[in-house]
Amino acid sequence: MRLLCAVVLALLLPASASAAPAQTSTRDCFISSSWRGWSAPRDADALYLRVRGNDIYRVELTPGSRVHRYGGDFLVNQVRGSSWICSALDLDLALMDYNGFSRSLIATNLRKLTPEEVAAIPREDMPY
User: Model-level pTM greater than 0.70?
Assistant: First the structure.
């Protein structure tokens, strides 16, 4: 019985070890403290996040969110558990103003933009 368990364990360990790097290499994660700015493209249910200086992520929101960026608005993410953001499920967003009013935003997708996609963003929609 011990021999059987050892053989099964030996067969499973290399398979799981080789699967882990492949899974993490396709995901672009960032730590929430590296988020530097945000913007809301006009007439879109989306946000752009500036991360670590030059990385831009696009956050798709539920249809009808229609976020507009005004001078007194700020975007808040409530960290629950790990501070690593790897998918839309890791975001708990709210748009708040200085008067204390807030509006929850539900993220449906998160992805890092390619340099070509970043270059195509109009200057006024770039996160600062």
Answer: yes
57 Cβ contact list (under 8 Å, min separation 6):
28, 30, 48, 49, 51, 110, 111, 112, 113
Angle CA 112–93–53, to nearest 5: 40
Q: Give the HSE-up count for residue 20: Cα atoms under 13 Å, Cβ half-sphere.
A: 6
The residue with tokens 């696009």 is 58
The bridge status of strand 84-85 relative to strand 107-112 is: unpaired
- Whether residue 13 is contained in a domain is answered as no
Specify the number of domains making up the chain.
1
29: closest CA among 82, 101, 100?
A: 82
User: Residue 41 sits in which domain range?
Assistant: 30-125
Give tens-digit pLDDT for 81-112: 889 999 999 999 999 988 889 999 999 999 99
